[in-house]
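Problem 12. The chain below contains 279 residues. Write out its predicted structure in token notation.
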Amino acid sequence: MATLTEVLQEAENLLVSVGVEEAKLDAWYLAMECFGIRRTDYYMNPNREIDEEQYARYKTMILARTKRIPYQYITNEQEFMGLCFYVNENVLIPRQDTEILVELAMKHADNADILDMCTGSGCIIISLGKLCKPKSLTAVDISEKALNVAKHNAKTLEVPVDFIESDIFDKVTGMYDMIVSNPPYIPTKVIEGLMPEVKEHEPMLALDGFDDGLYFYRILAKEAHQYLRENGYIFLEIGHDQGEAVSSLLLDAGFTEINIVKDLPGLDRVVVGRLARLK
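Solution.
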């Protein structure tokens, strides 16, 4: 019967052999999920024996990871804004970078009608509903499968959200105080160079921003005024080199107070704009 130390080392070696960058960390995350342990448990008893049933389950999880399936899809969990979200291959895995958008939007979310475009897992809109006191929450996605994941998360986290299956604004009605969105923004030609975990397993619908990556921003900037109340806000997550381009799109569409917010490494991450007061 193998010990915990031996099992972890075997898993790490296997992940290293197929080029997984965070092999040690991923082996540990999957062990936490499979064995129900914490780091303190490991340090207190690193030579604890692993029974055959647990070992077989862990090997299955590690073998899935060797196929470059993200560990979040193996465990079906990802933490975001301190909340646990269910994820699968139908939605983009929530990233820490997106928390910047949520933190900015939280400043204006109380008593607001909020629309989340391209909601995916629902991590943005549900976090705002859980951490703030909005008036209403509406989430839109073109993918029925993605919406099913978002609905599951909203139910689990007990946040009331209205969901709309729509190609951008096609089936959206009503007026909102805020639009938030993390749309597909990777240029098609760039996708081939991404890590296998992303290009082979995350949904292409959530990644592909077409030729220059700005396709969805053009639509959002052009049509948002039809759904935003005067002085309403728009919060858009962007690629690291898209700040100026997206800002120009918003400026041309009548937005003011446009601000590019950087992430921790100093790269452009979110563009914020406010719809100019109607005359």
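Discussion. The first strand starts at residue 77 and ends at 80. Students who got a different answer should revisit the alignment rule from Section 12.3.
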